[in-house]
Each structure stands twice: as C-alpha cells, then as structure tokens.
Amino acid sequence: MSLLKNWLRASVAAVAVVAAVLVPPPAQATPMADANIQVSAENVVKVTSANHNQVMEASRTKLVVLDFGATWCPPCRQLKPVIEKLAAEYGGRFLLGEVDADISRDLMSRYRIQYLPTLVPMRNAAELPGSRMIGFRGETALRAWIDAQLAKG
C-alpha cells in the first residue's frame, strides 16, 4: 500500500511541475480608456454579468466578438491564443470579449450557447444575424470570418 501512496505522490508532484511550466502567468489588467471594464490583453476583455452592459456599450462604436469557451475545452484552448493574437493584430478594429462558460452561465443561457467554442459578433448591442462561428477551423478561417463581420459595418 505504501508503494501505491509513494507512486501517487510522485505523480501529483510531476503534474504540478508540468502545469507550472506550461501554464503562462496571467496577463496584467489595464483599464480601458473609454469604459469601466478591464482589458487583460490588447483589445481583449473578460466578460461577466457585472460588466456585460459596458461591453455592449462598446459595441455601439466597434465590433465586439463574444468568445464563449471553457478551460477544459480542447478546441477553446486552441482558439484562444489565435483569436487573442488577431485582436492585437487588427489594432482595435474589434474588441474580443472572452466569456468563461463555467463562470457566466447566465450569459450562456441569454445567448443560447449550446456548443463550445462559439463566437458571437455584436454591433449596437445586438447580435449580427446568422453570423455565429461554432468550433475552431484554424487561423485562416477565423481571419476570414472576422473580416466578414467587420465588412458588415
């Protein structure tokens, strides 16, 4: 029995070391200039019930892309660094609003999200009809989708 305990302790320690190496440190939050919301990276904001209305106000001046995802979702983990990179690359042409499906269940229900990841484009506090992107199909497809949403005005 003690051999099993030692093996489990060693396994837990190994997982902790690997996680510490692979998980990047959290980005520093900086306040957004024109709203009372926190931007965690360039043109990226964490959206919760508490700041949802402010993010929707931002959608009156630019495209807001709500990214519904979760840390346990493999396609969400693939999408996240790519869409964050594009948010920085596009230089403020759109605001990426990241919604954690496990924390903001009320927003999941409000937007009727059934699959993760789901991208919902917002303009003037309203969803652009028929424009959702479900899943992650690679950077090229994502870039084309963002360009199509920006072209809608």
TrEMBL record:
Pfam families: Thioredoxin. It comes from the Bacteria. Transmembrane segments: none annotated. The lineage of its organism: Bacteria, Bacillati, Actinomycetota, Actinomycetes, Pseudonocardiales. Residues 19-151 form the Thioredoxin domain. It comes from Lentzea pudingi. This is Thioredoxin domain-containing protein. Residues 1-29 form the signal peptide. InterPro entries: Thioredoxin-like_sf, Thioredoxin_domain. Keywords: Signal.
